[in-house]
Amino acid sequence: MGGTIDTSVNKGRGPNVYRLHGHNCHRIGSLLPPPGKSPKYNQLEKRTGKLPKSKILRDDIVEDIKNMLNDFNPYSKILRTTKDRFQDTASSNVQLKLISRRTACAQSGKTYNLPTTSEVAALYVGDFDLEMEPRDIILETMEGKLKRISELHAGYLPLQYPLLFPFGEDGYHIYLELKRTTSGSTNPRTRLNQKALRVNKYVNVEAAADKGNMNTSKVGRRMVLPSTFIGSAQCTQEIYMDAMAVCQHFGYPDLFITFTCNPKWPEITRYLQARGHQSTDIADIVSRIFKIKLDTLIVDIKKNNVFGPATAVLYTIEFQKRGLPHVHILLFLQKGSKLITTDVIDNVISAEIPDEATNPTLYNVVKEFMIHGLCGVANPHSPCMDKGKCTKKFPKEFNSSTCINKDGFPVYKRRDDGRSVEKNGTLLDNRYIVPYNPYLLLKYQATAKDNLKRNDVELHNQVENDGSSDPVVEPVIDEIKRFYDFRYIAPCEAAWRIFGFEIHYSSVHIQRLNIHLEGEHIVCYDEDEDVDDVLAKEGNQTSHLLESMKINSSEDEELAFAK
Q1: Which residues, 6+ apart, have CB-to-CB distance to 66 below 8 Å?
Q2: Is 432 in contact with 422 (CB distance < 8 Å)?
Q3: Do 81 and 186 fall within a single domain?
Q4: Are 348 and 437 in contact (CB under 8 A)?
Q5: Are residues 106 and 202 in the same domain?
Q6: pLDDT digits (tens, 9 = 90+) for 95-123
Q7: Alpha-helical runs (H) found in 151-282
Q8: Residues 6+ apart with CB under 8 A from 443
Q9: pLDDT above 80 (res 513)
């Protein structure tokens, strides 16, 4: 391929990233070897006396494919005329050049229909200016003239990928008609758009009506991505509020657990060894196995009481740039099982290197998964480094015993006991150990970080203002653009969503009752609706909170009457 390969992105431990800059093109090269040279396969066979199995072509299969294309593909028949050109002119100046920039087809798709006569001689031409407009595809006719076609021409894909279009059928082109979705549609390429919905507070819609503004398209803000769309702003807001409701009911979470997928799990390695793949090639298998491990981990936490009886478990799935999934878990323990003393904390969480002599298995697992680094002076380009400092604040200080600091956070025991592990030629001691639970680490053989939580969470909401003094008009926010900005969809995330696995999980059921003042509940309406119609709708005049209060009030009256 053409273009400049950027290798600076491959500084981490993940799989190599192939990043291309500048001019990108697909180079096939000459059809004939240079003068006086033999084809590459013949040269290899002449030099070594044999060809590797991967380079050996079965003549019978090649002949069958050639005959099939000759019989059924009209492009193949015409391209065979290049053989006549070689024999007649002995020309070796033959090449194909595709340049990157996409240009619209300036002529109708019917200008160059599928060939029925010997019109197109070849896609291969060498007598054109290399400085011509980008993304040109040049055809040479039997008359020796050149014609320029778009990459979106109906015949481009059959010519470029004959085995994918063995019958020479049309590929995609911009004039390809769609099936009409409605009988009244005059444009076959017109699709049905979702309704232009807007949201606002009921009192603001009333204020707009009082001012005589009956145009709902200027009242409220456009709602494009609802809360049912996973990952939208509304969805994230609701999930955050759900988590805050759980904290309000059960108190602060007791443990924050991070569990990361391990591509070296035996279930994955067995599959890879049997098929000769790499873990980056089987995102579906990796996602399925991680989901199985995660479900088992949740069972250990909820039912097997690894940390004690639990009252609630919340988690959210995230995906690294290297593609591997990981989960952040919030665990709420029952009152009698709280980790309130340092001795209890030491029984559950460790931040030290185990003794290699007495526990070699745990020692090797900690060495592989629970070492932070290298960073700092030894590796200033580590992903955790920012302005010359580790953002995770490693190395930690030595500490003879576990204690709780003034902010309520635990400071784990990290004794200066002389134990160390070697990583990339550097000895690292207990100051570089990520806190872990020995039982879970041994069982799941993956990064499983455990931290005692004592902090509160604060919501920061950024409000955009266009300077308008009208309290009814709210700023226009492009929710789709905001959702797609900086989005990186790794294969594992795509597989996870295709399988329908949960991105967010809560073991407790939450009924949302948004608290609001009188008239300040949210209403949703079409952009072309009349304001009076919006206000008159029965569903817009109430909310879940108001209806819940009515039900509770009527139940109280019935209970009082019964007594």
Answers
A1: none
A2: no
A3: yes
A4: yes
A5: no
A6: 433 333 333 333 444 433 444 433 333 33
A7: 156-160, 202-210, 233-250, 266-275
A8: 300
A9: yes
**Range of 33-47, 131-145, 174-188, 420-434 with top mean pLDDT:** 420-434
Q: Which two tokens stand for residue 201?
A: 């507070």
Dihedrals phi, psi of 368, to nearest 5 degrees: -80, -40
The pLDDT of residue 304 is: 94
- 169 with 208, same domain: the answer is no
Of 172, 176, 197, 199, which Cα lies nearest the Cα of 188?
A: 176
Looking at residue 431, what DSSP letter applies? Answer: G
Whether residue 387 is contained in a domain is answered as yes
Domain stops at, among 435, 461, 487? 435
Pair of tokens at residue 19:
């990043």
- Cα separation, 155 vs 101, in Å, equals 19
- In angstroms, the CA 211 to CA 473 distance is 13
Beta strands in 123-213 (DSSP E): 137-141, 146-149, 197-201
3-state secondary structure of 218: helix
Cα(352)–Cα(362) distance, rounded to whole angstroms? 11
What is the torsion angle, in degrees rounded to the nearest 10, for the CA atoms of residue 145, residue 150, residue 154 and residue 156? 70
| Residue 433 · residue 371 · CB < 8 Å | yes
| Sheet of strand 522-526, all strands in order from the earlier edge strand to the far edge | 221-222, 197-201, 522-526
Six token digits for residue 439: 């039982």
Report pTM: 0.60
Compute CA 39 distance to the chain's CA centroid, rounded to the nearest angstrom: 43
Are 287 and 295 spatial neighbours (Cβ–Cβ below 8 Å)? no
- Domain extent at residue 356: 351-435
If asked whether residues 409 and 359 sit together in one domain, one would say yes
- Angstrom distance (rounded) from CA 354 to CA 366: 8
CB 471 within 8 A of CB 208: no
Task: Name the amino acid, one letter, at 193.
Answer: N
